[in-house]
Predict the structure.
Amino acid sequence: MNEITIHGHIGGAPKFSQGRTTAVNFSVAVSDGFFDRARGEWVNRPTVWHDVVAFGELANNVYDTLTQGTVAKGTLVTVTGSFSDNSWTKESVEPGGEDTVIRRIKLVATDVAVSLKR
């Protein structure tokens, strides 16, 4: 299993959907930095955005928690889960043209927690 844990800020309101199974989708921004001793200052790396999806009872709990009063965009969360490749190929409209691979990776959550740091 390729389990991973990320810790970052919610990028916007979770989107709830109910079909064959209940799902909630949201994004998490993970920022990182390091201290550059040669320059004597902190250097921020570019923010990495992760698309997250939760299913079933976890989806209900995530939606209920992340849409409550004080929990909003920018809230610090910890998400544990595994990456799922949802990539697909867009066929060329021109005969003999090259197909385009559309890369889409989602983090399928097995646990989500709101940070109590702040």
Notes: The beta strands are 3-10, 15-18, 22-30, 33-36, 41-44, 48-55, 76-85, 88-90, 100-102, 105-114. Residues 5 and 86 are 19 Å apart (CA to CA). The chain has a mean pLDDT of 88. The two ends are 32 Å apart (CA to CA).
